[in-house]
Amino acid sequence: MGADMIAVDWSVDMAQARKILGPDIPISGNIDPTILFGTKDQIEQAVRDCIDKAGGPGKHLLNLGHGVMQGTPEEAVGWLVDECKALQRERGLSSNRWNLKVELV
User: Fold this and answer.
1) Number of domains composing the chain
2) Does the model's pTM come out above 0.85?
């Protein structure tokens, strides 16, 4: 059985998941959704840590490991998205490697 991408819940260590899957299998995940109740600095660091543990930008699709929780500040979701975009620009990468439709609702 094959898969186009493996989604990893926030409770799974991203570095360990990448090690098990190898460098070529796309992976999705896995920021703990409670981080969005933290500070801007904590959110930005969580984005960078997740991306780096997954193999760096272009190696996975960043998302929350279990969705946005009720009561999450909208501003915090914006900080997550902004940091992801900033990292893409910083490292000179395409924002949509797999031609996915990206929508914030």
Assistant:
1) 1
2) no
